Amino acid sequence: MFVQPDTVVRWHKKAFKLYWQRKSERGKRGRPTLDPEILDIVLKMADANPLWGTPKIHGELLKLGIELSGRTVSMSLAGRMEILTLWPLSASELAGSSTSFIDSVFSKSKLSSL
Questions:
Q1: CB–CB of 90/101 below 8 Å?
Q2: Which of 40, 64, 97, 112 could form a disulfide with 92 if both were Cys (CB 3.0 to 4.6 A apart)?
């Protein structure tokens, strides 16, 4: 069976078009985005109650009639950690001494006496 060259070109154009249509639809599949109003409620709860974690906020949202998964709540809170200041561990570090607590505990003279 012989096919005209125009037919082959038409088939290729159709296949090319279908391929790129399906490839461009990939970003449109999956879970829908979170409503900005609900996200605002979640963030306000987290700001007003810094000791509440994801389970507590999730439970409060369920009490309000807002059905979200715990995973969605935790993902909406991502990147909102508080940065803590680390304090020195020993008085020698406060004094600016070069020897640290660990070095003084495990010094060679004390280990040899054991």
A1: yes
A2: 97
Rounded to two decimals, the pTM is 0.48
In sequence order, the 6+-apart residues with CB closer than 8 A to the CB of 70 are 54, 55, 58
Distance of CA 41 to the CA centre of its chain: 19
Nearest residue to 44 via CA among 62, 60, 55: 60
Q: For 33-51, how does the pLDDT look when each residue is reduced to its tens digit (9 = 90+)? A: 889 999 999 999 999 998 8
Q: How far apart are CA 42 and CA 77, in angstroms?
A: 8
Q: Exposed, middle or buried: residue 6 (CB in 10 Å: 0-12, 13-18, 19+)?
A: exposed
User: 50: alpha, beta or left, given left = phi > 0 and alpha = psi -120 to 50?
Assistant: alpha
Tokens 């082959």 correspond to: 8
pLDDT digits (tens, 9 = 90+) for 59-77: 999 999 999 899 999 888 8
